[in-house]
Amino acid sequence: MSSGTGDPRYRLAADNRRARFDYEIGQTYEAGIQLTGTEIKSLRGGRSTIGESYAAEKGGEVWLFNAYIPEYLEANRFNHETRRPRKLLLHKKEIARLAQAVQREGMTVVPLKIYFNEKGRAKVEIALARGKKLHDKRQSEKARDWTREKGRLMRDKG
């Protein structure tokens, strides 16, 4: 259910690049997000961040916490709160699956990116993730460095 980053139909509004380094990403889900008008306009500007945000189940619904969407400058007194909890729109089975994984397996629900689909609707790609330990981070960094070095060698010799 990923959104294909190279696809021109999708416009990225916010990206959590740190998540792939800090977490071992499992299954991903595409969720709608309930926003106000000023939040949508501000998201289209592309200055929002989801680096420190997380999603959690509360009252049978999934909420996105600590996502920063800056105030829309042209919207005087009708502006939104920048870090308010935002409701994610998922099917009941998906919500149950996420809640079960968090409770039983100790996983975390991490937002990977916020983007606009081909219809212009704001979507959030969330993933079930397990936190990496320090040695896992070192291992992934070593593998990334090796692939970079391998690419350099192939380019220089080939």
From TrEMBL:
Where it sits in the cell: the answer is: Cytoplasm
SUPFAM superfamilies for the chain: Small protein B (SmpB)
Query: CDD domains of this UniProt entry?
Result: SmpB
The record, for Gene3D superfamilies, names: 2.40.280.10
Residue ranges, annotated region (Disordered): 132-158
GO molecular function annotations of the record:
RNA binding
Task: Please provide one cellular component term from the Gene Ontology annotations of this protein.
Answer: cytosol
Compositional bias, Basic and acidic residues, is annotated for 137-158
For the biological process aspect of GO, one term held by this record is: trans-translation-dependent protein tagging
From which domain of life does this come?
Answer: Bacteria
Looking up Pfam families in the UniProt record yields: SmpB
InterPro entries reported in the protein's UniProt record:
SmpB, SsrA-bd_prot, SsrA-bd_prot_CS
Keywords of this entry: Cytoplasm, RNA-binding
Q: What does this protein do?
A: Required for rescue of stalled ribosomes mediated by trans-translation. Binds to transfer-messenger RNA (tmRNA), required for stable association of tmRNA with ribosomes. tmRNA and SmpB together mimic tRNA shape, replacing the anticodon stem-loop with SmpB. tmRNA is encoded by the ssrA gene; the 2 termini fold to resemble tRNA(Ala) and it encodes a 'tag peptide', a short internal open reading frame. During trans-translation Ala-aminoacylated tmRNA acts like a tRNA, entering the A-site of stalled ribosomes, displacing the stalled mRNA.
* Family per similarity comment: Belongs to the SmpB family.
NCBIfam families, per this entry? Answer: PRK05422.1, smpB
Q: What is this protein's name?
A: SsrA-binding protein
